[in-house]
Structures are given as structure tokens and as C-alpha cells.
Specification:
Helices cover 34% and strands 20% of the residues. The protein is α/β, with parallel strands linked by helices and 276 residues long. The protein has two domains: 2-102, 60s Ribosomal Protein L30, Chain: A, CATH 3.30.1330; 109-273, SPOUT methyltransferase, trefoil knot domain (Alpha/beta knot, 3-Layer(aba) Sandwich), CATH 3.40.1280.10. α6 runs parallel beside α12 (255-266).
């Protein structure tokens, strides 16, 4: 490995790590940033991803050294003081471990729909922590992928990756274009999916009532943003509308929590569990 120690945030060799808080700038450069030792270690071990460089403090370097040794020797490993991270990157970072990673080619929505049996579909979910939580749930219950509306947060945003415990790096996803999104429920139904809208609004049936029915071979679970929920057009187009009964002391559940409850009640994806 090539270890380069930098003394200050103005060092030209660390220029790629400036302004990492600008997600659009990162996407225009074709990269994403990964944060934390667990996430970076998983990236190093995953051949689908190409790491462009690492920025570490001394503690992270010592901890990750066996994994870093497996990287191509041409990958720069920059080492700086922990207190220089915030000044250099544009946001307050205390984990002392970042990676710049090349973004993989996007997956077409048609490809994801064709290859999946169980999908989670997110509409307008802009909170990175919620998106990360949904991806963690998707991995826990063996969902085949996550289909994103045009306005849903990027799963490769650093907070989403961190919250997902790196599941956003493993669970396949695709983002629908605006012209695709209007017909997404019809496309799912044409591919043989039973489309289920998760919503607290009436008319809807209790989740347990739906879960008691025979398990569909292909299932798409529609989930909307907190507060606004699913749009009327998407929710009304679903085959079923289901709700999680809760106390009247609160309006609704956090969407990642609700998604986890729904997936747990529906059970582990039988297609993946059977090795299909």
C-alpha cells in the first residue's frame, strides 16, 4: 500500500476530499464517500467496488492495515490528524476513516423488476437515515432490491450507507426516471407482482389480515415519506392497502420502523432462502 502522511487540510494531495458535504458534486465526479471502519472494510472486501483512495487517522490505519494490504498498491492511503478532518472535508467527522469510491453503473428499473421476487418501493423519501434504515431492513429480510422514486435520497449518500450498516452497498437498487414513475405500479403488476401500499390512512386493512393470506410469489411493498406518506395516485393504484395498528397517542410510526415491522410480519423472502 502507498501511505502518504499529510500535515494540513490545504495539502494538494488531499484535494479530492474537499467539500464532501456536496452530494451533487460527488455524483458529478462519479464517486461516493464511505465513512467508518466497518463500511470501509466491507468495501475493500467487495470486488464490485473500486476504491479510489482512503483518508484515515493513525488509529484507523492500524486497525485496517490487514484489509488495506489487499488493495491495489496504487490506491493512495492518506493519513492525517483527526482534528484536520472537519476542515478538510467540509463536515464534522470523528471516525477518522473515509473512502472515495467509484460509483457503479446504475441499474435499470426494468432489470431490477425482472430479476426480483420481493421489492421495496420508496416514494419521496428524502431523509438519509430513513433510506439507510430501509436498506438495512431489506438485507435483514432478504428483499431482492429497492426501487426508488426520482426524489428519494441517494442510497450511496454517506449517512444512508452508515445507517444501513453497509447494506446499501449490497442490496440492489434502481432509480425510476420521472416518466417511468407514473406507471411504476402498472409495470410491477404486469411483471406479476402483488403490489401492497403501506399506509396509515383509510381505506386500508390491518397488516396481520393481509399477512394471513397465501403468500404471493412476487410482492412489492410501497412506502412513502413520513408525514406526506404515499401519493394518492400510487396508493390507490396498489392491489392492497395495509396499515399497522398503533395507539391513538401517536400519528404514525417512523417509516424505517414500519417497513421493518411489515417485512417481519410478511416473513423472510422464501425465494432467497430457498437459494432461488
Amino acid at each position: 500500500m502507498t501511505v502518504v502522511r499529510i500535515e494540513c487540510a490545504s495539502d494538494a494531495r488531499a484535494a479530492a476530499y474537499r467539500d464532501l458535504s456536496d452530494g451533487e458534486l460527488l455524483r458529478s465526479r462519479g464517486v461516493f464517500v464511505a465513512e467508518g471502519r466497518l463500511v470501509v472494510r466491507r468495501l475493500i472486501d467487495d470486488p464490485r467496488y473500486t476504491i479510489e483512495s482512503l483518508l484515515l487517522n493513525e488509529s484507523a490505519l492500524r486497525d485496517l492495515e490487514p484489509a488495506i494490504a489487499r488493495l491495489d498498491s496504487a490506491v493512495p492511503v492518506l493519513v492525517c490528524r483527526t482534528d484536520a478532518f472537519a476542515q478538510l472535508t467540509g463536515y464534522n467527522i470523528h471516525r477518522g476513516c473515509l473512502a472515495l469510491v467509484r460509483r457503479p453503473p446504475p441499474t435499470a428499473t426494468t432489470s431490477l423488476i425482472a430479476s426480483a421476487a420481493w421489492l421495496i418501493v420508496l416514494e419521496g423519501v428524502t431523509n438519509a437515515d430513513n433510506v439507510g434504515g430501509v436498506f438495512r431492513n431489506a438485507a435483514a429480510f432478504d428483499a431482492d432490491g429497492v426501487l426508488l422514486s426520482p426524489t428519494t435520497c441517494d442510497p450511496l449518500y454517506r449517512k444512508a450507507i452508515r445507517t444501513s450498516m453497509a447494506a446499501a452497498l449490497r442490496v440492489p437498487f434502481a432509480r425510476a426516471a420521472a416518466e417511468e414513475w407514473t406507471g411504476v405500479v402498472g409495470d410491477l403488476r404486469a411483471a406479476g407482482f402483488t403490489v401492497v401500499a403501506l399506509t396509515p390512512r383509510e381505506p386500508s386493512e390491518p397488516l396481520d389480515q393481509f399477512a394471513a393470506r397465501p403468500r404471493p410469489s412476487r410482492l412489492a411493498l410501497l412506502v412513502g415519506a413520513e408525514g406526506a406518506g404515499l401519493s394518492n395516485a400510487i396508493a390507490s393504484a396498489a392491489d392492497y392497502r395495509v396499515r399497522i395498528p398503533i395507539s391513538n397517542r401517536v400519528d404514525s410510526l417512523n417509516l424505517a420502523v414500519a417497513t421493518g415491522i411489515a417485512l417481519a410480519r410478511l416473513g423472510i423472502n422464501p425465494h432467497r432462502s430457498a437459494g432461488l
